[in-house]
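REQUEST ID: PR-0412
SUBMITTED BY: lab tech R.K.
PRIORITY: routine
TASK: structure prediction, single protein chain
INPUT:
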Amino acid sequence: MADLKKLFGLNGHQVIAVIGSGGKTSLCRYLANSYKEEGERVLVGTTTKIAMPPVETYDRLVTEDFARLAEEVPGITVAGEVVSQNEVKKLSLPGAPEFQESFGQYDKVILEADGSRQLPLKGWSQQEPVILPETTATILVIPISGIGLRISEETVHRLPLFLKLTGAEVGDALQITHLQRMIEHPQGILRQAAGTIHLFFNQGETVEDFRDAAAIFEGLSPEIKTRLQTVIVGSALKGSGVSIWQQ
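STATUS: complete
OUTPUT:
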């Protein structure tokens, strides 16, 4: 198992959109900390809505006066407008132009660009994911440990859209073919991906998980394979993985 940061190979200035389900927030935090350890300045935000991050995950929080983002501050800066959703405070994409104008001040910008309501699977509406024009890399997160899960409202965000994408039915056990269709479908996870595209099968812990991920990749069309820069199986929580494809 190797360090995920090295496997993604996102060197130099990058604006990274993290989309999908089953580990986006964990991956964003791992990457932010890894780049900080290398002495890089990191900006973390969202293009949708995310939970307020714990104070121990950042060095600075900016929720207004976004012109401050141009200041030379080391470490991890989290930025976003505070909004209330069901009486819970969250961060959302700032409307102030200074937010996106500040991207060039940071070595890495990491944006959680998709929502799944903390469910392991999802389908995509016409407005999702929200990818900014500055994006240089997109990481697609799919939980490989989801194979075998029963497909229902309890496991899938936007269930009707997921059923349409995959051909699955409510109550089915999630199969390799369902995830292949989710990747292949024009309205699936790849629909808005920009920059270099990195497919990350998260929660890969067992030999069977790695075999399932390899089978999903091998079953993709040549056209889809050529769009992918890397395919990685591993764990965002552990920060490690294995590359099974690289251009």
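NOTES: The domain at 2-246 is CATH 3.40.50 (Rossmann fold).
REVIEWED BY: pending
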